[in-house]
Amino acid sequence: MRSGFLSFRPQGTTTQWSATSRIWTQPSIRHILVYLGTSMRALTASSILGLLLLAAPASHLSGYQDAGHAQDPGVYRVNVRLVLVDAQVVNKKTHQVVSSLQRDDLRIYEDGVRQQISSFSQDELPLSVVLLFDLTDSVRPVLKPLAASALAALQHFKPQDEVAVMVYAASTRVIQDFTTDRSLTAAAIDKASRMESGEAAFFNEAIYQASGQLSHGTNPNSRRVIIWLTDDVPNIPSEEVKDRYGRSLRGGVLHTEKEALKELFRTGVVVCTLLMRSEISDQEDSLRDSSKIIGRMLYPPGEVYKYAQASGGEVVESNSRKLPAKLAQLIDDIRTRYSLGYHPSMAKPKGKFCAIKVDLAAEVKKAQKDLVVQAKQGYYR
């Protein structure tokens, strides 16, 4: 998360970060503290000052004050929180991505209240991508085709896009940290294709750790994406299964589905899955007895469609023949997602979850009835 106040003063004074709360005070602009909250981008001091002078006289500024801080009549703290939301519009019949919409064709709501879209773009943000490989037994028969498709798809990344390679079973391992060197990424993919694990597949732990990895990317202004290569056959993350098939955790904490979803919302990561099943995958699915159903209820294992829906991503199913083309198209679709920005119209306590809904304008719905919007379901202040 990127949060805090950016403090700046007139020439001859210093600039520093502080962890103070948002405060409005009355007249005299001696310096401004710019609040940078969750899912924001920094603005320059001169930009903020210009916006203030254009928007209203200082005498019209009012707001709320934190009683825990002493008043300084020459200090202004201006809330410029910018929430960024990735959205993708798809024709539900043809499954084709619609990339021709404009700002006025979309609507965005926070906790049911419509927000004004202040920024709108496509194909402008660089990508930070984690290629997340499932190493468990059921994936092993299709792991090499998955890896080969990932290698072929590298050419669809732009020079400024950074890619990391991670593998998982019960726990995760970073094979290659974020890099723009495609030869390093290719070597890591090749290494991943030759790895195997006899441990359980703990999906929640994998998504939690991959989301955290993306928060350490080298480009803070990138679009953060997990491209998950799996068969969607998780193990029940109970204590018994953890003890028997999770030795690499070494007694560590196993994160829950709820914690993994919270980490997704915290980091603003989009989860997109390339799903390919083996015969073992189908056999595993056919063995769902009552004990497994109860286990899934008690210990939700996570699954690809739920993570995609929560983060605004997508799931692409494929066979080995179509795999390279499907993954290449997935990367191209990620790049052309709509990036919407808005300044929340209401103050909310720090740490509160804010629900987000991106919708189509009424006239677009009427003209094109088969379109659906995919976007993250919310974020934490």
Describe it for me?
The protein is α/β, with parallel strands linked by helices. The chain is built from eleven helices and 19 strands. The strands form four sheets. A six-stranded mixed beta sheet has the order 12-11-10-13-14-15, sandwiched between helices. Strand 11 and strand 12 form a beta hairpin. The longest helix has 14 residues. The termini are close together. The relative contact order is 0.18.
Task: Describe the protein's topology.
Elements: E1 4-8, E2 16-18, E3 31-36, H1 45-55, E4 75-79, E5 83-91, E6 97-98, E7 106-110, E8 113-115, E9 117-122, E10 127-134, H2 140-153, E11 162-168, E12 172-179, H3 182-193, H4 203-214, E13 223-230, H5 239-245, H6 257-267, E14 270-275, H7 279-286, H8 290-298, H9 304-311, E15 315-317, H10 323-335, E16 338-342, E17 353-360, H11 362-367, E18 371-375, E19 378-380
Parallel strand pairs: 3-4, 10-11, 10-13, 13-14, 14-15
Antiparallel strand pairs: 1-2, 1-3, 5-6, 5-16, 5-18, 7-8, 7-17, 9-16, 11-12, 17-19
Condensed summary:
The chain has 381 residues and is an alpha/beta fold. Helix content is 29%, strand content 28%.
Low-confidence stretches: 1-71
Order of strands in the sheet with most strands = 12-11-10-13-14-15
- The radius of gyration over CA amounts to 23 Å
Percentage of residues assigned to helices:
25-40%
The major β-sheet equals:
6 strands, mixed
H and E string? EEEHEEEEEEEHEEHHEHHEHHHEHEEHEE
**Structural class category:** alpha/beta
**Strand residue percentage:** 25-35%
